[in-house]
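batch_manifest entry 22 of 60
target: NUDIX hydrolase
source organism: Actinomycetospora endophytica
requested by: lab member K.T.
priority: normal
notes from requester: please return tokens only, no post-processing; we will run our own comparison against the previous entry in this batch. if the run fails, retry once and flag.
--- input ---
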Amino acid sequence: MTMDPTALPPGFADQLAEYSARAAAPVEAKVAASTILLRDGQDGPEAFLMRRRTQMAFAGGMVVFPGGGVDPRDATDDVGWVGPSPSAWAQRLGLDDVSAARAVVCAAIRETFEESGVLLAGPDADSVVSDTSGPEWAEARRALEARETAFTDVLRERGLVVRTDLLRAWTCWITPEFEPRRYRTFFFVTASPAGQRAAAGSTESDAAGWLGVEAALAAAGESVAMLPPQYCTFLELAQHHSVGDIVDAADRPIPEPVMPGLELGADGAPRLVLPDRYAELNRERVAPR
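--- output ---
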């Protein structure tokens, strides 16, 4: 059994009908960042996943990677920074605005810390924080999620700089036009730093943990509910045998953003239109070997 990423997820058909009835212009997509936190497991790469609470207005009950919307304070230019420059990141992300690129990268690192406790930052360019599991770090995560403090303040108070060299841009997905909540989400990959432990902490999720890439694909659409961006990302990750291979493969400019279109299937029902590469990867999963 394999998931069909072109099938409209639960509730999307109703949203499409409402959108068509209103004949309204699409909602502007907000910029967001999501980090695929990876580690090597016994059976190959594993990713840290969270299940969003069913009460959430967007993707309720779905399994997602840590991530969220860009905070305007993420664009500040006084953040301690090592790794590729914001202008280099703008090129990798296909953005014309250097400030926007800085904000996306900072949001990716901040959201990873908020939702998993893993912090891609250290006192200098050659080290990362060794442990973020104590009560002081838990309070910092809570304050960030509540927007009571800025990420730059959390870093400055501890003498830390963001390690943007540990991130790689993977892809970008834009929510279909008929969705009432739309995001332009930049996905990143990173290897979980040695010594740090990923753990749930966000009020938006009710479960979290590590799951192998192959296991996630096998369970997708059944015991693991996920949206097309996550499933298609797993299809891509499954082409690599280790975290190192994945990070190396991402050392390039980000591909063109993916925004699913719509078409009528043979049964007359609307279906998502995705790039051909995802259909090919999905067929390869079920092809006889």
